[in-house]
Design brief:
Length: 258
């Protein structure tokens, strides 16, 4: 099928890394100018007969990077990710020329603290925040006095696509605190870190870090159940709606799929 040149790029895969059997990340050469803000998403697609199957994917890379990085999770009965899973370096996919999304870092409220909650691929926009801030910090150009606190949960440690990178940055900078946690420690006997789902840990670390709704913006990204439960917990802890941001990834197979 022919795609309109004024709306779409033919993005080319330049790199692919396997994280687990159903998780992988790729780098894309957009094929043209693509300006975005950390936290936004791109819309990717593949043709299916006369139609184009498209889905939105949060961008992992920083706007400072020349290529786009995307972290994928295979949805076995989805319409798009099974096709994307078969693509390799050199293959092309459609990409809309305009990024979208408002899940960007809150620099307007004056809040110093930013609580980042995520599951598996939901870490993508946060990596973009961190890479961008890291570059700014190295240039003595941080946009505000802020501190990021992240709780990143997965079933097993092999599902952490960016743990080593984030731990490395956290060891270098004073403004990042990172807690990875697994919910199935019996399947991961070598794991020595935190255990539990995101929603199990919000109270513990919210108290430990002294995070309150009047000084903190809460961000929730990933599985819809985590977001629903996490939003409820934060609201009961006094976080007003204007201090909460969410980006829902519809992973369950009973939905339309990705």
């Amino acid at each position: 099928m022919a795609l309109s040149g004024d709306k779409f790029y033919r993005a080319r895969i330049t790199d692919r890394s396997e994280i687990s059997p159903d998780l992988w990340k790729v780098k894309l050469e957009p094929g043209g100018k693509f300006d975005f803000v950390a936290g936004q998403y791109t819309t990717l697609g593949v043709p299916d007969g006369e139609h184009l199957i498209e889905r939105a994917y949060s961008i992992v890379s920083s706007p400072y990077e020349p290529q786009l990085e995307i972290f994928f999770e295979l949805v076995p009965h989805g319409k798009l990710t099974p096709q994307l899973h078969h693509l390799h370096v050199g293959d092309e996919i459609s990409m809309r020329k305009i990024p979208k999304g408002r899940f960007t870092l809150d620099l307007q409220s004056g809040h110093k603290n930013h609580l980042l909650l995520c599951t598996v691929t939901g870490i993508a926009p946060y990596v973009s925040y961190i890479r961008t801030l890291h570059e700014d910090w190295k240039e003595n150009n941080m946009p505000a006095d802020l501190h990021l606190y992240m709780i990143n949960a997965a079933s097993r440690s092999l599902e952490f696509g960016y743990r080593e990178e984030i731990e490395r940055v956290a060891s270098e900078v004073p403004w990042l605190t990172y807690v990875p946690s697994i919910s199935r420690p019996w399947e991961d006997p070598q794991w020595r870190g935190e255990t539990g789902r995101v929603e199990d840990l919000i109270r513990k670390y919210g108290d430990k870090w002294g995070l309150t709704g009047d000084t903190t913006t809460g961000y929730l990204c990933g599985h819809p159940q985590m977001i629903e439960l996490g939003m409820g917990i934060l609201k009961r802890r006094g976080f007003p709606n204007q201090s909460l941001k969410k980006e829902v990834y519809w992973v369950p197979a009973k939905t339309a799929g990705a």
